[in-house]
Amino acid sequence: MKLRMHMPRVAAAGLLGAIALTGCAEPLEDTIVVGLSADITTFEPGMISSRDNANIARHIFASLFTLTAEGEHVPELAHTLEISDDGTSYVYTLNEGLTCHDGEPLTAEDVAYVFNRIADPANRFTGNTPGFVFTSIGFVNAEALDDLRVRVDIAQKNPIAFGLMTEVYIHCKDAYEAMTLDEAASNPVGSGSYRLASWTRGSEVVLEKVREPGNFQRIAWRIIPEASTRTAELIAGNVDIITNVVPEQVEAIDGSGRAEVQVVSGTRRMYLGFNLSDEHARMPGGDAIQDPRVRRALQYAVDVPTICRQLLSVECERATSLVNPPNGNASLTPYPYDPERAERLLDEAGWRRGANGTRFSIRLQAGQGRYVNDVNVVLAIAQYLEDVGLDIDLELMEWASVYTPLLRERQAGPLFFLGTGGGLWSPIYDMTDLAQVGSGTNYTHWDDPRWFDRWPDVVNAETPEARRVVLDEMLQVFHDDGPWLLLYFQPDFYGVSNRIAWQARRDEHVEIFEARLK
Amino acid sequence: MGAYVVRRLLQSVVVVIGVTLVTFLALQAGGDPTYLFVSERASLEEIEATRRALGFDRPLHVQYLSFVGDLARGDFGQSLSYRQPAMEIVLEALPATVELTVFAMVFALLLAIPLGVLAAIHRGTAWDGSITTFSMLGQSIPSFWMGIMMILFFGLYMRLFPISGNVPFLAPLLSGDVVTAFTNLPRTIFHLVLPGIAVGTYSLARNTRLVRSSLLEVLEQDYVRTARSKGLRERRVLIHHALRNAWLPVVTIVGLEFGFLLGGVVVVETVFSYPGIGRLLFAAINQRDIPLVQAGVVLLAGIFIVLNLVVDLVYLRLDPRVKLAGGRG
Question: Which of A231, A243, A401, A410 is the best residue to mutate to test the B interface, defined by the most B CB atoms within 10 Å of its own CB?
C-alpha cells in the first residue's frame, strides 16, 4: 500500500488534533462554573441593580449582616447591632481585624464612607441600594463612633430597615477615594471571600478565593443568554450550575445522567391585578371590579394548580396573600377552583350573563417574555375568565419598552398580569408593595382603609406577637377583598451538575460559598 | 481618484448623522428608558430622580443635539449601564466580531467559488442539481436554528467543538501581546467553527448561486467562444477568460457582505454566547443604553461606508471600463 500525504493535509490534521486537545475542557476540581442568563454591567456597589449582577457582587463584597437561605439575618462583618429607642439610629459593632482585598484595614470609618458615598447625589448612582434601600429606610447619614462602631441614622422608625441594610455592599475608603467612578465600576476592591480575577465583558467573570467561606478556589460566572445553549453546556459537563432553565428542558437535563434540575418555589408573587383607579373604573369592566364581591368571585374562576402543573411543570399551592410562606396568615386557605361558585357570586353581585352569554367585557394587559411561560399562563387565565362569562380583550405587549412604563405609571389594566419580587425574611417586606395608597408599587390603586390605616399599628407594635396579630388581620382583608387575583409563587429552575453538591435558594440568590464537590 | 475619495467621505458624514437620528428616534419610540434603570420597587419620586440623573428629563431635541455636539468632538458619551465610555466598550467587543465575520467569509468564499464553478460547468447534471438544492436550503434555514442544531450535534452529541464562548486572538494581538495571540490561535479557530459556519452558510449559499449564474452568463459570451475556437484548453478558458469576468458581481456582493455580516451576527452571537458587538448591541437596545447603541451603530455605519468605497475602488481596478462619476477614471 502506498501512503501519500500532502503537506496541507498534514498541517490540517495537526491543527485539528491540537485544537481537539485544547478544547472542550471540563471544569477543574478547584473551579466551579456557573452559567447565567444575563450579562452583568458593573461592579460599582451603588449601581448594581440586576439579580445576576448582585449574585456575583455578593461574593466580592460582604455586608454587615447577611441573609441565610432560610430568611434569617446573621452577623457577617458586624457582630452586634443596637437600635435606639426611637428606632432611628442603628449602631453596628464590627468584628476586629477586618481587611479589604488590597490589605487595607476595614474600620467603622470605611462603613460610614460606603453609606454616605452611595447616598451622595453627586455620584448619581441609580442602583438598588440608593434607588430602593435608602429611600425605603429614609437614610439620613452614617458616622463612625470609633474604630469599630458605626451609627446609621434613618428618618423614622421602620421595622424592616435592618433587613434592608444588609443589602449594602461594604468596601474600604482609600481604594475608592483613589479611583474615579469609571475605574470603580470595573475594579472592585471588596471585603468578601472572593476577589475579581478577570472580567471579559459579555463573556465571563472569574473570582478567586482570598478567605473563608468558600469551597472552591475559583468561581467562573459565564454569561450564556440562550437557554438551550446553557442546557447544552450543563449536559456537556462544561458548566456546573445554570439558572433560568426553561420547563421544556427539564426532562432533557434530568434524563442526561450528568445533571439534574432543582425546582424551588421562588419568592416572586405572580398575580392578576385589578386596577381600581377612577380612570379605569370608567373603562368597560372597570366598574365591575370595583365591587369586592366580583373580585372574590373571579378568584374561584381560575384553576391555579392546573396552570402550575400543565404550564410550569410543577405542583404548586395557590397563594393566599401577597406574603411568601411561611410568613403569611396561617389560618388562610387558598381559593379553590370552583367555576359554578364563581358564576353564582357574579350573579349575586348583579353581573348576570346577557343574551350573548357575556357578563361584561374587560381588558387584560400583560407583558411577554419576562416570567416563566408567561404568555401561555395569561392565555389560560383569560380562557378561565371567559368560561365564567367575561369577554376578555387580551393585550400582550413587549415587556421592557411598552408594558413596564405602563405599569410604573400605574396605568395597566383594568386587569393586568404581573410578578413582583418578595422575600423570606419578613412579611412586612412583602407587604410594603402596598405601603401607601400612592406607593409606586401599588399598581392597583387599592385604598381599603382596613389595610392602609393599620400601618402605624404595624410600625408601633410593642412586641412581635402584637405585630403578628395586626399583620394577620391585614392579610385577611387582602385575601377577602384585596386587589390581586391570587395565583402562585413563581417556581425557579436551576440545573446542577452531578459532580456538585449545592442547594438552590428560594430568593433567587445564587450563593456558591457552601457548594462543594460530591 | 483622491478627490473622489474625499467627496465620498464627506458624503458619509451626512449618512452617519442620518443613521444616528434614525437610531435615536427608534430608541425613543421604544418608550421611556428610565424604568430600566430603577428597581422594580422604586417610587415615582425615585424614578423621577433617576430620569434627571440620566438626562432623560430634557426635551428630545435637546438630548439629540447634545449627543451630536458631543459626537462632533469625538465624544460618544458614557454607557448608561456600564458607566464607561461607550465607544471604548464597543471597540472592546469589535475584534471578536471581526474574527467571526472573517472566519465566516473565508468559509463561505472558499466553498462558494468551487461549488459555483462546479455547478456552472456541469449545468443540468446531478452535480448542478445537488449544489443548487444545497444553496436554496442554505438560504432558507435560519441561522439561529442551524446554530442550535450544530450545538446539539457537534457540540453535545459528537463533542467535537466547543458549545459556546470564544478565545480571543485579535484582542491580544492589537494590544501587542503577540505570544498570547498566537498561543490562542488554535483555540480561537476551534471556537469559531460552529458559529462561523452558522453565520457563513447563508453567504455560502448565496455566493454559490451568484458564482454559478455569473459564470454561466460569461460562458455564453462571444469572447469565450472565440477563446475556445482558438483551441485554448477548457481550463485556461475558464480561469483566464470566464472567471475573471464572472468576478465582478461577486466582488460587489462580497465587499458589502462583510459589513452586512459584521452587523448581522446578533442572533448567532447570542446563541453561541459569543461576546461580540452584535450581542453587545442587542443587550444595549434592550437596556435602552442609547450612548452605547449610538456608538455601535456609528462604528458599523463607518465600516460599511469604508467597505463600500473599497468595493468601488476594487471594481474600478477589475473592470477598466468603469469610470468614477466626475473623475478621470
Answer: A401
What is the maximal distance between C-alpha atoms in chain A? Answer: 96
Q: Identity (one letter) of the amino acid at A500?
A: I
Q: In this structure, are residues A260 and A498 in contact, taking their beta carbons and an 8 Å threshold?
A: yes
Contact A500, A516 (CB under 8 A): yes
Inter-chain contact A15–B41, Cβ cutoff 8 Å? no
For residue B247, the SS3 value is helix
Residue A232 and residue B191: Cβ atoms within 8 Å?
no
The closest of A182, A160, A168 to A114, measured between CA atoms, is A168
- Name the amino acid, one letter, at B282: F
Do A400 and A429 meet the contact criterion of CB atoms below 8 Å apart? no
Choose among B36, B38, B161: nearest Cβ to A131: B38
**How distant is the Cα of B29 from the closest Cα of chain A, in angstroms?**
9
The pLDDT of residue B21: 85
State the Cα–Cα distance between residues A222 and A489, nearest whole angstrom: 27
CB contact under 8 A, B159 and A24: yes
Q: Give pLDDT tens digits for A403-421.
A: 888 888 889 999 999 999 8
Minimal Cβ distance to B93: which of A181, A202, A402: A202
Give the mean model confidence (pLDDT) for residues A186-204.
93
Distance from C-alpha of A419 to C-alpha of A417, rounded to nearest angstrom: 7
Q: What's residue A23's pLDDT?
A: 45
From the list B39, B40, B273, the residue facing A224 with the nearest CB is B273
CA distances from A53 to A124, A193, A221, B274 (A): 19, 17, 10, 19
Q: How close B193 gets to chain A, by Cα (Å)?
A: 11
Full 3-state SS string of A180-193: CHHHHHHCCCECCC
pTM of the model: 0.84
Question: Mind giving me the DSSP string for A57-89?
Answer: HHHH-B-SEEE-TTS-EEESSEEEEEE-TTS-E
Query: From the candidates B164, B167, B268, B292, which should be mutated to test the interface with A, based on the most A CB atoms within 10 A?
Result: B164
Complex ipTM value:
0.80
| Helix (H) or strand (E) segment spanning residue B126 | helix B126-140
- Indicate yes or no: CB of A225 within 8 angstroms of CB of B84: no
DSSP strand pairing (A31-36 vs A218-223):
parallel
- The C-alpha atoms of residue A408 and residue B284 are separated, in whole angstroms, by 21
Q: Which residue has the cell 429607642?
A: A85
Cross-sheet strand order for the sheet of A78-83 = A78-83, A89-94, A149-154, A139-144
CA distance linking residue B81 with residue B112, whole number of Å:
42
* pLDDT tens digits along A196-212: 999 988 889 999 999 99
Three-state secondary structure string covering B272-309: CCCCCHHHHHHHHHHCCCHHHHHHHHHHHHHHHHHHHH
**Angle at A438 (CA atoms; ends A433, A443), nearest 5 degrees:** 55
Q: What angle do CA B122, B126, B128 make, to 5 degrees?
A: 45
Q: Does B189 touch chain A (CB under 8 A)?
A: yes
Per the omega criterion (within 30 degrees of 0), is the bond before A464 cis? no
Q: Which three cell numbers stand for residue A53?
A: 449582577
B175 touches chain A (CB under 8 A): no
Mutate to test the interface with A, among B25, B35, B39, B286 (most CBs of A within 10 A): B39
Q: In this structure, what are the phi and psi dihedrals at residue B154, rounded to the nearest 5 degrees?
A: -85, -30
CB–CB of A22 and B186 under 8 A?
Answer: yes
| Residue in B327, B300, B306 with CA at minimum distance from that of residue B94 | B300
Cell numbers of B49, please?
430622580
Burial of A75 per CB tally in 10 Å (0-12, 13-18, 19+): middle
